[in-house]
Amino acid sequence: MRRVLVALKCMAIVAAVLAIPACGGDNLTAASPPKVIIDSDYNTLSDDGQLGVMAAQLQAQGSLKVLGITVVSGNQWLKQGVADALKSVERLGVEKQIGVYAGANYALSHDFATIQAELAQFPGGDGYLGAWSTPEPTSDSDLIAPPDGFATHTQVQSKSAVDFIVDSVKQYPGEVTILAIGPLTNIALATRQHPEIVPLIKQIIYMGGAVDVPGNTTPSAEFNWWFDPEAAKAVLHLPVKQVVVPLDVTNTVKMDKTLYDRVAHDPTKQTIITQLFKILNGYGFDGKNGFETNPNYTTNIWDTLTLAYLMHPSFATQTVDEWVDVDTSFGANDGKAMGYTSSPPAGLQKMTIVKRFDNPSFFNFYVDLLTRPVPVTLSN
Predict the structure, then answer these.
(1) Structural domain for 82, as ranges
(2) Which residues contact 293 (CB under 8 A, 6 or more apart)?
(3) N or C: more exposed end of the chain, with fewer CB within 10 A?
(4) What's the whole-model pTM score?
């Protein structure tokens, strides 16, 4: 009997080892799971919403602790982003564990008049303006419901996003990672109003910037940092460990028809998440006006790379360390990220810039988490 017990124990150990992804620096094996705040211009199931799903699944398996979701205007106006985030946590069944906190509705100084003047004088880019493309909602009646409806019982937290960031960092000094996957207004306000939290932040991981490649919203600037350049500049100057996941790498991590089908069309893994994924991301892959007329269609994958990097740093197969700044002057380079390999301007912080990713490993990570059963069953 003793031999049988020993054998069973050995088999369990082997099984556990085999279950761990073969990646160095794996946070999935950490004794205490990483604590994160997701600071996001949230949406139902584009890149921000996908990251929310993936984070909830990681929390369900005990590999991550999501302290909360702080919402900021960017992809859409704050009120719409909050509504989408509330439905997201309710849909996933994590509304009691992961609160949603409303943050900044406007950029610190980048107003629409400035944007219009710049675009008139310096045209180009993809034309994506996020929230500025639609009228600002003034009441709940102006909001657009997700395909499966608004949240029915989940309410936004009474504490503001800024206060939540400050209180969380103070509660867990040296432990909180901020996944900054939208404009940086909330983080800029939190650190400006309470500078004492700056040395207590563990790290900030951004999806933002275009360091050595063209921008997207404009020929020189990536959308998240373009939306609020003053906030981006303020946060990048903080003496905090920082990792940038810019367009330099996201331009090389693309969803094609095969990857899309792994999420949307696996008949054994159909959930409300995969259904919404198909509805909201299938325009280039399904239907007579999509894949059938453009078999080479691809789209970049953005925000979810930050979560992947947090959990599997070795997914980043090429990185460089540079000082990074953002141009805040009126003109063609407003919002442009600038990397310095030497002799940086005063006040900049050296940080890690991700240049290339292990795409096959990331795709497996991405598909697995997006196709797990929902609602999730949380262990904490």
Answers:
(1) 24-253+301-370
(2) none
(3) N
(4) 0.91
377: tokens are 């069953």
Identify whether 281 is part of a domain: no
Number of domains the chain contains: 1
57 within a domain of the structure (yes/no): yes
